[in-house]
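Troubleshooting entry. The earlier prediction with adenosine monophosphate gave an output that would not parse, so I re-checked the input for stray whitespace and re-submitted. Clean input:
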Amino acid sequence: MRGLMQGWPLLVHKIIDHAALYHGERQIVSRSIEGPVERTNYRDVRLRALRVAQALDRAGVKAGDRVATLAWNTARHLEAWYGIAGIGAIYHTLNPRLFPDQLAWIANHAEDRVLFFDTTFTRLVEDIAPKIPSIGLYVALTDRAHLPAANLPNLVAYEDLIAACDGDFAWREFPEDTACGLCYTSGTTGNPKGVLYSHRSNVLLSLMAASGGAMGLKASDCILPVVPMFHANAWGLAFAAPMVGAKIVMPGAKLDGASVCELLTNEKVTVTAAVPTVWLMALQYLEQTGRTLPDLKRVLIGGSACPRSMIEAFETKYDVEVVHAWGMTEMSPLGTMSVLKPGMRDLPYEKQLDYKCKQGVPMFGVEAKITDDENRELPRDGKAFGRLKVKGLAVASGYFKGEGAEAFDADGWFDTGDVATLDADGYMTIVDRSKDVIKSGGEWISSIDIENLAVGHPAVAEAAVIGVRHPKWDERPLLIVVLKKGAKAGRDDILQFLSGKIAKWWMPDDVVFVDEIPHTATGKIQKTALRERFGQYRWPQAAE
Ligand code: AMP
């Protein structure tokens, strides 16, 4: 027997309708690309999104068409997302940190029809435009006064585009499983692959993100998503914040420590989210200036493993709770959050930190298991580690145009490419990306664990560990370190610091110092580049 409840379709534009009606005055603050901090609210964002929808409709954009954005987090970018999705077209976020050729490849693969871009990227857009014949309209996210002189066909200023429409337009109706957003994975192996979010998955993801078991968002919150909209769906915050009527602060192009901390303080931000590299800069800035974060209550850190020292610094020096999170583009991107369970707060702080360093417990809507290479499920004992596989309400069932089908099995499990443990309390710990684990004498060593310990050394700014060929053990860990400005430490100081904190056979056989560690377009340590750079590395005699 079927239930007798309404089939209220889960459509993303219902979120902005709700926000405009019930939280219309709530502010959206942006550090604009032109410079000043600008303010708007949900009522205006909705009206302007309707104008975007109307303009795209007039331009002949149809349901299912891909409309690309190459832009920082701003209110205009948010309006564009809702406007695009509201006619059944698909917002396609392009990551400006990719190489121009990669961007052109992705835009061609997606067959984008329109490109909205920030003027910061004008030269980049001019460079790639001739290689993307499918794009027929270029919209610079600015007004006429700031419209750059650019060699682009059909270039229009965003403010002119929407001024030409009156907003007397209704969102289109379509089923909830209609495609809504497209984001390509960084493609560390092979070509980038497109993850195609649906309206339904985005709405469910936002409910999940806002819920008490995850970010616990409320109308009284002020949220600063430092995590870019072009990376992994902005962790659902572009939908979850309006869903609850929270104030949003958009950081624009300035993600350095001083700029982020200025917004955190001036706008009285209560919740923020970003990858560890952003917080590394922010914490250094706070340390140098002696400033504090009086309003900030919670910081979400994910995208790469969050070092223990970072959690400790936020919590003990600045009284800000850290929620360590794990997820991926293919999961919209939320998977697990390291929220303490009842009773755990009574544990000694060092024990609490042990749990917070784990990537966390799957939220409702995410199923997770670990298997060996033969797909046999491994025990949830916190010791066995294997391939992490997931299912869920906002997990990809395949990639755009059928690429990468081998990651999805017949029972609907998606192989994340991560190696992890699951413990009896349900906490998942990432051991490594499967291609980054170090295989030493037939056993595995977690590069992440060593990196996280190494950055706890007071002189270390950043650390990376890679496996380097070894005549006896197959591979051994090499620790690569960037020192903090003006700080001094030698190989032996660092090894001494690690000694006793990890198993003896996990100890790096050598430490090398570099000026900079390369990062991927999504802020992760680029291990492939490090492996290339240190491919010819020879171990000191003693290590062999
Ligand atoms: P992306 O799709 O770019 O967000 O990358 C997803 C990948 O980032 C995951 O498969 C993990 O390898 C890594 N990752 C994300 N969050 C964490 C975390 N908290 N700890 C360790 N690795 C993480």
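This one parsed fine. The chain has a mean pLDDT of 95.
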